[in-house]
Every structure is written in structure tokens, then in C-alpha cells.
Amino acid sequence: MSKIIVFASGKGGTGKTTVTANLAIALCKKNNKVLLIDCDCGMRGLDLMLGLDKNLVYDTGDIIAGNCFTGDAVYPYQSVPGLFLLPAPMNAEDEISPKVMKQFIHTIEENYDYILIDSPAGVGSGFETAMASARSCVIVINPEPTSIRGALNIRSALQKNDITDIRLIINRFNEKNFKELNLFKDLDEVIDLCETQLIGVIPDDYRLVSLSQQGKPNLNTSATAEVFSRIADRIAGKSVQLGFPKKM
Fold this sequence. Notes:
alpha/beta, about 15% strand
């Protein structure tokens, strides 16, 4: 049985999709077979980050409508063996219901070690579809008040749906800026306010963003590769220390 994890954020702009893609790569580098499912209907971005956008013909909506077989809409990412993408429909009106998504994932989950679901920001209908079959969730935030409020909204919605295995990633952390802004005493205060167990801190790294926007995500060319490797180990249940490069 695969581990099905939804990645969520209470607000846009936290870098959630970038985190999801790079964590999938880190898991594949540890000999796992990973399926990325884009649930951000109408605003899909994983295909762009993986450089697969020009290859797409079918998406999840086509599978459900019977326009293609499941395998036709699952695209391998050739640069990383074991990584596959199932894109979201480009039209928002083709959004899949939570019930249908749950039934669909049940038919394919035995084929993968991990299924990572990229949810749209917020707690709307797209989020409900994304979390329908998830057994755990990773909330991605930036260390700022609006992001923390969004995280609490996500956490509340998850608990109402009996998802209690929830972890926190603090993304785009810049120690100098964090101290100068003086919004929080330290990172421990951020974690406490989110009421969620921390699984990783990802430094603010412009190279990571640049590579993702070029369709060339973290292939050991970014200083954050080790950070994602550690998070992947922690998701797998291994006891490894948190940590990130002090000099970017």
C-alpha cells in the first residue's frame, strides 16, 4: 500500500508546488516509485516545473471521462527514474469530485510507493478533492503571520476529515531577514503557532526557484538537495536530524 500525502498551504505563494516536486525527486533518488498528482485544476504547475508541459495530451479529467486509459495520462519524468506525473485538467469546470478522486486513487495506489498530491492553496473544493484519499498531510508555510493563519485553517479542515498525521515544512527561510523583521522570537514560536510538528526547514534559495521555473527542478545542482533528502528520510520514518545549509 502506498503512502498518500497531500501537500497544502492556506495561502498562495508559499512555494508548495516547488516543495512537492523536489520532495518527489528526493524520494525517487532513494529507490522509490512516486506518482505526483496535480489537483490544482485550472492552474496546474507541476508539468511546467518538470518540463513536461509540451508532452501533455491527457489529464485526470480525461481518465474519469473515459477518453483515455490511466496509463495514457501518467507521464514519466525521464530525468529521474521512478517519477511520474498525473496532470490536472486545465479547465476549472473539469474539477473532479472528492468521491470520484478517492475511488480513482484506490485503483492505482498499489502501483506506487508514494503518491504526492499537490493541492491548490486554501480550503476550497480543490483542497477537498486533494485530501479525499490522503492519509497524511504536509503543510507548507513561509514564516509570516498570514501563512500561519492559513496553516491553522488547513489543519482544522484536515482534522474535520479525520486526517491527524500532519507535518509542517517552513519554506523560504532566510535567517537574516527573519531576525530583521522581528515578527517572531524564533522559529520555535512559528512552529508553536502552527500547532503542527515540524518535518523540515527549507532555506530561501533563488537557484531552486530558478531551476523549477525552467522545468529543471533540483537535480543535485542546488544547495537544498540535502535538505530535501533529509525530509524524504523523515517522511519514510527514519530518525534523522533537521538541518539546512547555513551559507547559500
